[in-house]
Amino acid sequence: MSDLFDIKPAVKTRRLNVLPANPEAAEADAVVGLGRFPSWLHRKLPKGSNLWETGKVLQSKRLHTVCEEAKCPNLLECWSKKTATFLIMGKECSRSCGFCDIDFSKKPKPLEEDEPQRVAESVKELGLKHVVITMVARDDLPDGGAAHLTKVVAAVRTNGPGTTIELLTSDFEGNLSALDTVLASKPEIFNHNIETVRNLTPKVRHKATYDRTLNVLKHARHAPGRHFVKSGIMVGLGESCDEVLATIRDLRDVGCDIITIGQYLQPNRLKLGVKAFIHPDTFEKYAQYGREIGVKHMYSGPFVRSSYNASLVFQNAQGQEIRIDSD
Prior knowledge:
Distance between the termini: 25 Å
Number of domains: 2
Oligomer: single chain
Order of helices and strands: EHHEHHEEEHEHEHEHHEHEEHEH
Strand order of the largest sheet: 2-3-6-7-8-9-10-12
Number of strands: 12
């Protein structure tokens, strides 16, 4: 199966067999070394005043976003569209995963009681019809922050009754009672990322396990109510093609409706290095494979992140067939 895919090692001075659509990019793609990216990871900066307006709203409400804290490459594009992924419960995470640039703390700061209202006000000011709310892992709290998360959901619904909500949560250390608390808030999409293949999970994720993630997703699938279940994978960390296909199958088997796949990019020199830059054709083959085995909605591409174009992905999940560019 591996010969169907095109993985480009990110090794300095390594000649790569790349055939870019733009012939002028051939030389740039021939050698991918430190600080270098292949042509498909280059794109124009967005224009417009919305970028600054989004930043002003978030700053005025004293809110954090995963866009900033995790150094997302899509920040400028998303903010220029007046959308952002809210990061709640502070910007200090009780875990220190090998891929993530969010600050680590054994004792994160206390929860802020007015945070739910501040998030809700920001959603309204930005005019968001679909909002993604994620969280740092809060293993220091008895319920992992589940109750606080539901307060945010309630505040958003009170301020904007028509807003649909996507929750991207931690695994709550496998606490299914905490998970049920979150699911009882009835988000339109429940999202929990598996992040990587089974073999790399101990290296990539701190405390989280591959099987626990599958169990969380399976539990969410069988929870009462109508909601979509979503998960995401990063590639380029040293996984094989067959391992990615196996992960897609595992996610399908536990009932994931939506799977996102994107290129891992090293956020700083202390985090895991990129082992390979995955060609766009390979992302499309992963998406095609997922659809062939029964995954309802695959969103796969170099710039794809779990919450990237989330509103359009949700519309597609509802059967509206909105065109989404994969990068």
